Amino acid sequence: MTHNTQAKAFRDATSVVGIGYSRSKECPGGFSRNSGESVMTLILRSALEACRDAGIDPAELDGAATYALSDSAAPDAVLAGLGANEINYISNLFGGGNYPVVTLMQAAHAVYTGVSKFCLVYRGMNGRSGSRIGHRPAGSEPVKAMGPEQFSTIYGFSGPPSRYALTARRYMDLFGVSSEDFGRWAVNSRSNASKNPRATMRTPITVEDHQASRIIVDPYHLLDCCLETDVSCAMVVTTTERARDLKKPPVSISAAVGGPTFPPDEIVDTGLRRLGPRVLAEADVDRSDLSLFMPYDNFTDYPMRMVEDMGWCQRGEIGGFIAEGNVTLDGKIPVLTQGGLMSEGYAHGLNNLLEAVQQLRHEAEDLCPGWLKAAHTYDRDVCRQVRNADVALCTGVEGLSAMILRRA
Amino acid sequence: MQSSSGGLPLPQADELTQPYWDAATAHKLVLQRCSQCRLFRHPPAKICASCYSEESEWAEVEGRGTVYSYVIVYQPLLPAFQSRAPYDVVQVTPDGAPNVRLIGNLAEGEPRERLQVGSTVEVVFDDTSDGISIPRWRLT
Fold first, then answer.
1. Which of A34, A283, A293, A315 fits A255 for a cystine, CB–CB 3.0-4.6 Å?
2. Which residues in B have their CB inside 8 Å of a CB on A?
3. Nearest Cα to A393, choosing from A322, A288, A298, A314?
4. Measured between CB atoms, does A144 come within 8 Å of chain B?
5. What is the pLDDT of residue A104?
6. Could you tell me whether strands B133-139 and B120-127 are parallel, antiparallel, or unpaired per DSSP bridges?
7. DSSP 8-state assignment for residue A386
8. pTM for this structure?
9. CB within 8 A of A392, min separation 6: which ones?
10. Collapsing DSSP states into helix, strand and coil, what is residue B138?
11. Looking at residue B82, what DSSP letter applies?
């Protein structure tokens, strides 16, 4: 089979049929700063909600896939905790921001090939109260820097803000993009989050607030950085054929491409320069067909460049593009409709994919009284549902993986 | 002068990286280069990612370069660096090895407000009390 024939056969053959968050009475949105629960409990709660949402018995799950860099719970243990005893597929990936897309892609492949009937995808972490990415427990700082770190840590270069700020600085200096432009992106995310009851940060902000927030690593202010939260997100994947008999409108996986790649020649370029055209072709959609864009937003500037690399505007023009209202809920390409990783919370990126599913079902969880019945007001004081949402583009970190989801 | 007793982490040289630090002690900047395809690589690695050869050599570079990017750290993740913040971190493309990007700092007292993407720099070596010399950069 040629690559194109394969892409066509895979196209929309599998669907996300259930989504769930680690909600509880104390934490109705699922995201918190201090869950007071084990990661396993968070994961089980999110998985149970995803199964209820799909209308399946958790014991029907026969596969599970996850990814982690630090704290997590293994897929076989999670399935056991759900009473799912007939396991046909597990995948426990070691990786970070590129893996929400990659892990969902693997689950879809497992379902597509018939290995698994109902595959759980999850990411649970006590990302604030437990193991914080980039941090070392107090007292465990190295006296000697070993391995590749002997060329970086010795200079005080350590952790995601420093690493990503290097790219941001080069982008600003070469293309004339300003910190205020970064701020405009953050303001838009927060505006969407203000209509998201799940969101950790819901108070609207201004560019002035962004500029006044403390500097973490110049050029990044606090409001350029994503949150750290305790949360688990889960999804159930099955064939689109089976999905049609289930509770919710299926959201099919039209195409999924990419994975970790060698650093590009120019760090300002995101993976979407290469993967964008490919994922559109494999899904057989045009860029103008996309209803929303859910890039991985660990820091403000990377998703901004992903918008540029998809060709919505040219390199360096994103500031004006945002200022003209193009990324708002009624704009040319609505982005991060629930506030993204910067305002909703951080489930290592998986929450951006769950949001795409909600949007494509027309069930964006907002302040409209009828949201769960897909009854939206489109009053932008309370409503964050994108009108007629039917195709979404989601990415992993730096645009190194990409996926198109569609209302089936 | 940086020292382990000062609390800042120092490099732990290993089999792969010892020649780099030995050269630094002699105030020379060397980089690992594939003996077969001549491609520079950094950090050092056993196998060339381009031609897969395991044969490599150490080549001295001139010690001049261009700032590829830079940041100013206000809130370090490593507690040992907190008292130094804010401080700069630069990423330098050394002349003669355009595919290499070295992380470093400007040398003590350098005017970091002059830092720009594209600034030209030259290497200087900070001798520590542990006998290790750390390459840093001076604006030219």
1. A283
2. 4, 8-14, 17, 42-43, 49, 68-81, 84, 86-87, 89, 91, 102-105, 116-118, 134
3. A288
4. yes
5. 98
6. antiparallel
7. P
8. 0.95
9. A290, A291, A292, A293, A294, A356, A359, A360, A404, A405, A406
10. strand
11. G
